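HUMAN: Please help interpret these C-alpha cells:
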Amino acid sequence: MTRAVIFDLDGTLIDSAPDIHAAANKVMARHGLAPFTQQEARGFVGHGAGIFIERCLAARNAGDRPGLQAQALSDFLEIYETAFDHTVTYSGVTEALENLIEQGLVLGLCTNKPESPARAVLRHLDLARFFPVIIGGDSLSQRKPDPAPLHAAISASGARDAVFVGDSEVDAETSHRAGIPFALFTEGYRKIPVEELTHRVAFSDFAHLPDITRTILG
C-alpha cells in the first residue's frame, strides 16, 4: 500500500523569507516605491506570487496604478527565479526526508510558490532528489487553500493514504478542506497561535517527523 507525505515549501522545508524580502525590495525600488522590512514582507507570504505582489503594492498605496501589478509581478518572478542566496533548509530537514524515504514513503510537494522557482530552489539546496511529485502555485488553475492542488499531489504520488506537512494558516485550511491529516511545523510563517489552527499534531523539530508520520499513517 503506497503512502505519501506531501510538504509545503516556504516556511516548512526552507526559510526563504530573506530572499523573498530582497526580491520584493528590488521590485519596489524599480518602481520608485519604499522598501519593506523583512517582517512586513514575510507577512505577505502564503498565497502565491501574484497575491504577494498585490499585497506589496497595496501596502504602498500603488495597487491601482495602471499596469503596475502585471509589470511588478513579471519583475518579481524574473528576480525570484534565482533568488536563493540567503535561503536555507530548516535544521534536520534532509535527515528527516532520508528517513521517510527509507520507510518506503513517497514524498511530494504542494506549494503556492510558482513551479519553476520551486524546482530551482530545490535543485540549489539538493532537495529535488526527494520529490518525484511537485505541484506549484501555477501548476493548476487553483491554489491553496483550495484542496485541488493537494489532491493532485496525492494522486500523482499514487498514494492511498497521506499526511500533509505545512506551517501556515493556508496549509491548515487546505488540509482541512482536503480531509487529509495535517502536521504543523511551528517554526515557519504562521501568523496566529498554534492552538487556533486545525492540525493532527504540531512539531518544532524535524527529528520528530518520521515518528509522527508512522503514528498518523500506521
In short: The two ends are 11 Å apart (CA to CA). The mean pLDDT is 94. The beta strands are 3-7, 14-15, 88-89, 106-110, 133-135, 161-166, 182-185, 201-203. The chain is about 45% helix and 15% strand.
